[in-house]
Amino acid sequence: VNPIKHATLASYYYGSAPLRRCRNRRLVRAGRAPIMAVAYHRIADDAANAWTTSRNVFRRGVLWLKKNFDLISLEEAQRRIRSETNGRPAVSISFDDGYAINCDWALPFLLEQNIPFTYFVTHGFVSGNDFFPHDWNAGKLFKPNTLAQIKELAAAGVEIGGHSRNHPDIGSIDDEATLVDEVVTSSRDLEDAIGRPVRYFAFPFGQHANLSRRAFELAADAGFEGLVSAYGGYNFPGDDPFHLQRMCVDGPLLRLKNWVTLDPYKQWTIPRYEYRPHGVSPAIAGVETR
Ligand SMILES: [Zn+2]
After folding, report:
1. Would you say 24 and 262 are in contact if contact means Cβ atoms under 8 Å apart?
2. Distance from the CA of 27 to the center of ligand 1, in angstroms?
3. Ligand 1 centroid vs 261 CA: distance in angstroms?
4. Mean pLDDT of the chain
5. What average pLDDT does the segment 100-120 reach?
6. Do residues 124 and 165 make contact, with C-beta atoms less than 8 angstroms apart?
7. DSSP 3-state helix, strand, coil percentages of the chain (rounded to 5)?
8. Is there a contact between 116 and 93 (Cβ–Cβ < 8 Å)?
9. pTM for the whole thing?
10. Ligand 1: distance of its center to the CA of 66 in Å?
């Protein structure tokens, strides 16, 4: 962590805290409390990279969230968004990629705390012995989860989500067959492998440029319940429940706290990715989604 950046964030966070508290109270009173989704990747104490969070920071973050927010599943998040009213700020926890080390401590900790979470895994890596290309390129040989671990999580009640087959940039795929395979077929294969429905899909990388309008259509047609991005948007009651915007909260605790207390700067500067032709979700517009 860059100490100057961290100090700047700290003064910004604590400086705007009274304003935020006031604003958040107003939203709660109006039934407009945010329904947020956060994404972690890898929980380990080796400080290996920017998407690794230490156990201590993760534990403190989760307990702080538990005290201050409703911790809910993606399904409940969608229900609250759809119902157009939410009286308590809520957070849905998820993980992307599927790192074996998460099973050592972080996931058992969440299960022990009775906190729901969604675990998005890249099918090609949890079913093989390969390393993620973004890790391989950085010389980091982190083990992906095994299918046996994913099955065990599913059996413990964890929602398992799809995160493509090869972890590509979905936004740059022009070929329809590749797109169908990465989004739909890979999730179906994951479903077959674990014997449970895979209802949600997380875009690899998850920034605006990594999303695809066609992928949203394909997923709606294939019966997915929802898709998630990771560029850092907030969800409010009445928003489109089919696309849940998440924020990556790997790293320092302050980053998590800053996000989920509604950073006004981020809220005003990060636009929602619009994939719908006329602002109507395919899932809502009556496209058969089951
Ligand atoms: Zn990923």
Report:
1. yes
2. 32
3. 25
4. 93
5. 98
6. yes
7. 45, 15, 40
8. yes
9. 0.94
10. 25
